[in-house]
Design goal:
Blueprint lengths: L2 E10 L5 H17 L3 E8 L12 E7 L2 H7 L3 H10 L3 E11 L3
Antiparallel strand pairs: 1-3, 1-4, 2-3
């Protein structure tokens, strides 16, 4: 069964403080222990010299063990709680999922 890579990019509002961003990423990291099927989480600030991030300054990647567990995660109460913390601070967001049979 293919794994699911769940990628999300954030363009934070200018008034969002570094402390708030740190808290957001702590909350996101905590979802691994609270939602079934998350195999891996990594997230943080854009760090490439390539400069192809547009206005997106931060992002995260979650690897799910199956599309079924990703589908459980999306409406999961803990995911909804964390989204409610994040969304007031976001100008723009991209979420992109893809199957990955190689992981």
């Amino acid at each position: 069964m293919p794994k699911i890579q769940h990628m999300v990019l954030f363009d934070f509002k200018e008034e969002t403080t570094p402390s708030t961003i740190d808290n957001i990423f702590q909350e996101l990291a905590g979802l691994k222990a609270l939602c079934p099927g998350i195999l891996h989480y990594a997230g943080g600030a854009y760090s490439s010299p390539e400069g192809m991030n547009g206005d997106f300054t931060h992002g995260f990647l979650m690897t799910f063990d199956s599309s079924e567990n990703r589908d459980i995660y999306l409406p999961h109460p803990e995911h909804e709680r964390v989204k409610s913390i994040i969304l007031p601070h976001i100008k723009n967001v991209i979420a992109f999922d893809c199957e990955d049979a190689s992981v």
